[in-house]
Write a structure and sequence with these properties.
Largest sheet of chain B: 9 strands, mixed
Largest interface: A-B, 62 and 51 residues
Number of domains of chain B: 2
Helix content of chain A: over 70%
Largest sheet of chain A: 2 strands, antiparallel
Number of strands of chain B: 15
Oligomer: heterodimer
Order of helices and strands of chain B: HEHEEHEHEEHEHEHEHEHEHHHEEEE
Radius of gyration of chain A: 19 Å
Shape of chain A: globular
Structural class of chain B: alpha/beta
Radius of gyration of chain B: 22 Å
Mean pLDDT of chain B: 86
CATH architecture of the largest domain in chain B: 3-Layer(aba) Sandwich
Strand content of chain A: under 5%
Distance between the termini of chain B: 60 Å
Shape of chain B: globular
Number of helices of chain B: 12
Structural class of chain A: mainly alpha
CATH superfamily of the largest domain in chain B: Response regulator
């Protein structure tokens, strides 16, 4: 029983980590309809920037958690402004190709700057200990990730449902022309949303850095997981993304212990089942 | 709805593309080498159909990863190779060495294409590389039928010098069997009679752990449990919880690269360190992963055929020269590259530079014997695989960083060849 409980906590913590990484992708796709395949790359840039911050600028994880995501948001803003804007009228395929190409460019740039060897982001000393939980040792950082993931979810929900900005964003999703007809600069809305997506990717990179490590091609591993979660949760639904992250995190954790032979395909299995049973995803809305 | 369907289709297509991309990045050109130009050779058209022996150049093809997950291994192998060539002024048997580098890309099919390019248009005399065992297997038949002397400088799959051995293939690095088997008896005698096995779930991880299991059980030990996390596991939490609940006296682990960093760090975070002795192969606490692991690897006991800390005159000279040239410590792969360079050069020296007879060149490679930074080096004439000493190293706290030290020599290991 204790083992079951601790594995559940493992799964939850992994799930929340996946949520922190994925929510930015879900946000930009849900609101802008842009599938940003460079999301994983922004995540990677966030992690590496955090490494530079903790090493050379301010030797504190907390400073990195603030500075690195903001820098990533600025980079995202530039990407949106320069590269993404011309593609809005061209449709999904050109955005997918553009961001995918961008992912490869960022991959090589990161390798040139930070090198190809594996690096690791240090945990904040306050969170680097372990606690006793159900008779097992459990790292504090993993518990903090659960709390942090919850906080991110609540903030996103409040932002989207309770603020004027959220109302504009939701209106923009339903009918762009009407929103701009009401005198709202929809282009600006898009830029801000994309920057927030980048900010969240950066936060994901910093938060996941101490757990998952930093190395070339880390972004593609994360991108695949994020895409699976996006499909499972339903496109454009933050609540769906949260639910899917937790589902994938928990099932993956239990699957690895109980069915090790098929553990590799478990999450793709979940995706396939969801696509067959409920093609819009668990909490997906029908987007017209 | 239409938009939605479209989006799902894109998602699927792109995820497939990504999976493919991760498996091995396509046909990026490795570019040719900055090797010294051939002005010394005096032959104005070295690329043309003349037999290589009549020109004053020997061409060495290096098929190594310059992109993808193994990039840093490829870079270090190349650095070791070039360091040795520097030391002999880029000459072998009185001829100028020309090094032609191609990217193996961790893709067997693409690597085969690169091999054909190296053979057909570059007309290489000898081939060295690759890192991936899958690539090595893919090259094997082509190398064998076209009679290219091939010095395998990293890939460790057992079968390359067993059922799939070739007259033209020699391996100077290691086999999975050597790595795994070397810990078996030592662990039983010195660490524990019962061990839990954890290894990355791919051919090499399986081969190493199987070899350890065989040797450990032969010594009288008992394997009390096994887990095989997928290669590139993000999160070892569930496995570590499983191990912790079984509470074995020791864990034998095979993980490398980013897996080794995460496994060793999480091993500490989940409270196994200090309670359950962690042993394994030397990739767990290798020179190039320890800086990223922080203090977590302290106390790991692992076997390997070389370590930075080996206190021999040969190793000291190698380390010093390497650090002088590149400003950083050599890794295991740097040493592999350095030794591969030496073997090729000495083979060509022994033929006085006449590399026209490929069979003779291959035989000459097999005869090379010397004292390497790793210890005495010679080939097994039967299997074409290196016979070498293996060592036990322990990681210790060297004041804010970690170092490895030699604990024991476990003797010479000769691959059984079947």
């Amino acid at each position: 029983m204790d083992i079951f409980a601790i594995q559940l906590v493992n799964g939850l913590s992994y799930g929340f980590l996946l949520f922190i990484i994925t929510c930015g992708l879900s946000l930009t796709f849900g609101i802008m309809g842009v599938l940003n395949l460079a999301h994983g790359s922004l995540y990677m840039v966030g992690a590496y920037l955090a490494l530079t911050v903790t090493r050379d600028i301010a030797p504190s994880f907390w400073a990195a958690l603030v500075i690195a995501p903001i820098l990533v948001a600025v980079i995202s803003l530039i990407i949106e402004f320069v590269l993404l804007r011309p593609t809005y009228r061209l449709g999904h395929l050109s955005q997918v190709l553009m961001t995918f190409g961008l992912a490869y460019i960022i991959h090589d740039v990161v390798r040139m700057i930070w090198g190809a060897s594996i690096q690791s982001l240090n945990m904040p000393p306050e969170l680097s200990g372990s606690v006793e939980l159900f008779g097992q040792v459990f790292p504090v950082y993993r518990l903090a990730v659960v709390g942090f993931g919850l906080a991110v979810a609540v903030v996103l929900w409040l932002l989207q449902e309770k603020t004027r900005w959220g109302a504009i964003i939701r209106a923009g999703l339903t009918n762009k022309e009407m929103v701009s007809g009401l005198g709202i600069n929809i282009k600006l809305v898009f830029s801000v949303v994309f920057a927030i997506g980048g900010l969240l990717a950066g936060i994901g990179g910093v938060a996941a850095g101490p757990v998952l490590g930093l190395y070339p091609s880390m972004e593609f591993e994360v991108l695949i997981l994020a895409l699976v979660i996006l499909v499972v949760g339903g496109l454009g639904s933050i609540a769906g993304t949260l639910l899917a992250s937790l589902l994938v995190g928990i099932l993956d954790t239990f699957g690895r212990v109980m069915f090790p032979e098929i553990s590799l395909i478990i999450i793709f299995g979940i995706m396939a089942v969801v696509l067959i049973v409920k093609p819009t995803g668990l909490l997906g809305k029908q987007v017209h | 709805m239409k938009k939605f369907k479209l989006a799902v289709a894109f998602l699927l297509i792109t995820s497939m593309a990504l999976v493919a991309a991760c498996g091995g990045s396509g046909s990026k050109s490795g570019g040719s080498s900055p090797a010294p130009s051939q002005q010394a050779g005096g032959s104005s058209a070295p690329q043309q159909s003349q037999a290589p022996a009549t020109s004053g150049v020997v061409k060495i093809g290096a098929l190594l990863p310059y992109s993808g997950v193994y990039t840093s291994l490829g870079e270090n192998l190349t650095r070791g190779l070039e360091l040795y060539f520097d030391q002999v002024n880029w000459t072998a048997g009185g001829k100028k060495i020309e090094l032609i580098k191609e990217d193996e890309g961790n893709d067997p099919q693409a690597a085969l294409t690169k091999l054909r390019k190296l053979v057909d248009s570059d007309k290489i005399d000898v081939l060295t590389g690759p890192v991936s065992t899958a690539v090595a297997y893919a090259l094997r038949d082509e190398v064998d039928s076209r009679q290219i002397p091939f010095l395998v400088s990293h890939a460790g799959g057992n079968d390359l010098t067993r059922s799939r051995r070739s007259d033209f293939i020699w391996r100077s690095s290691f086999s999975s069997w050597q790595i795994g088997a070397s810990m078996g008896k030592y662990a039983y005698d010195n660490i524990s009679k019962e061990v839990f096995l954890a290894a990355a779930d791919y051919a090499f991880g399986r081969e190493v752990s199987a070899a350890f299991k065989e040797a450990f059980e032969a010594a009288g030990g008992k394997i009390v449990g096994e887990v095989y996390p997928p290669l590139g596991s993000n999160d070892f939490a569930s496995y570590l919880t499983e191990i912790r609940s079984k509470n074995p006296p020791a864990v034998y682990a095979f993980f490398a690269g980013s897996d080794a960093v995460r496994f060793v760090q999480q091993y500490e975070q989940y409270g196994l360190k200090g309670k359950i002795q962690l042993i394994g192969s030397g990739w767990l606490n290798a020179e190039d992963v320890r800086p990223a692991q922080g203090m977590a690897p302290v106390g790991i006991i692992a076997t390997q055929f070389w370590d930075y800390s080996l206190d021999t005159p040969e190793n000291k000279a190698f380390v010093e020269a390497y650090e002088k040239k590149y400003g950083e410590r050599p890794s295991l792969e740097s040493l592999e590259g350095y030794d591969a360079g030496r073997i090729i050069v000495e083979a060509i020296n022994s033929l006085n530079g006449d590399v026209s007879d490929k069979r003779k060149l291959s035989e000459a490679i097999g005869k090379v014997e010397f004292t390497s930074p790793r210890g005495p080096f010679k080939f097994d004439q039967e299997t074409h695989h290196v016979i070498q000493k293996l060592y036990v190293f322990e990681t210790y706290d060297a004041g804010g960083k970690t170092e490895n030290r030699l604990v024991a020599e476990v003797g010479e290991f000769r691959d059984p060849g079947q």
